Amino acid sequence: MQVGKSIGSFTFLLGFVLLCVGAKLYATHNECCEIADEPELREYISKDTINFNKRSEWEGVWGELNQCDPLEGVCYAENALSIYDCDSSKGTCILNHITTKKTNPAYTKRESINCNEVTFEGIEILVSAHQAKPNESYFERMCSEFQGKDKESCRQKADFSLIKNEKGITFTSSTLLDSKVCYLKNKNQYTPQEALSQIGDMPQGTLSGFYPPLNASFNCAKSGLSKIEKGICNSFVTIRGDYILNQMYNYIYDFAWSKSDKQKLKKEQLEWIKERNLVCNQQEKPDSLTYCLFIRNNEQIRNLQAIIDDEDDSTIKTPQRVHMEFVSSTGAVKIYEKPSLNSNVLHTAILNDKATIVLMAKNSHYGFTKIWFLENYKEDGSMRRFVGYVQNANIKRDKE
User: Fold this and answer.
1) Structure confidence by residue, pLDDT tens digits, 102-146
2) Closest to 260 (Cα-Cα) out of 316, 303, 307
3) What kind and span of H or E run contains 117?
4) Closest CA to 333 of 390, 373, 384
5) Contact 253/265 with Cβ under 8 angstroms?
6) What contacts 24+ positions apart, CB below 8 Å, involve 327-336?
7) What three-state secondary structure class fits 82?
8) Is pTM, for the whole model, over 0.85?
């Protein structure tokens, strides 16, 4: 997938780069690319990766991981702002943004506006108290090819702002930044001026919004973090890897067939953590801790995936997948993105449709049950699959 010339200088100067960052952790579930030797992004927040010394309260990873699926080892939707290299004397920081939308029919309404992976990197922002704006040099680079009214229009379309409070960062972006399309038809026929006029008609993306602090399986803001925990919290890819690893482990543990299986799984996981920490604690070079954690977590993700898929030699059996049926007086059941009636509805399932429903967690959440849903398309035989929440009243579980 390529970023077209139709948005000319905008996407080139923004540095939109289509990456396979997510697939590096989950290559077996994504045809985008093979696992790389190391993360390709400017992946760490603090250059002192060993101690993770942040120089500003702005520095960190902010965002959310949505629809993380232990059965496939992927997150279908993720958004993250990385803010690093803050200079208090200049009042500046550097901003990166990452958004990943995996191909997933549950996101039909959004699929047309997102590439698989899109990122812009290295934008200098001016920080003043709890607000931030792009540096003037950013506008000069973005709009260098325009003059007069076109240049002013370009500046308006390229503008964005950030407001930070104790709960996170609100990112308000322009039409240009929200128009995250990979290409336009007849892209080579557009001049920069024509591309500028097209931006207002592009479908809107999801860059603008609220970005809470992005945590791993633990709170990255807690005091007394260990060296390993600091290393994990210093990188988007290691935060995500730790988060997915924890989701997969919890899924297997919840549905282990016996008490002895649970004990064996817990023992093996603790032994792996001990071995990983021993090896990675020895890393002293600037980037080596991040790289060590990335590789080790990736290996364990594959090991746990093999248990889920029943493809390894472990004596732990494949997790017991408790199946369920939908029940509803209306003949349809809503599947929510989060355990709340105010959350986005991912899909409305019709009771007579052919589908497989698998329990994802034994404990319910605020009156909702987390499920893995697999449905066959009637038109072409393809499948839709995603993780979501259903009200407890709408499900009937098989006997466990």
Assistant:
1) 544 444 443 333 344 455 668 899 999 999 999 998 888 888 888
2) 316
3) strand 117-128
4) 390
5) yes
6) 327/351, 327/393, 327/394, 327/395, 327/396, 328/394, 333/390, 333/394, 333/395, 334/390, 334/391, 334/394, 335/371, 335/373, 335/386, 335/388, 335/389, 335/390, 336/368, 336/388, 336/389, 336/390
7) strand
8) no
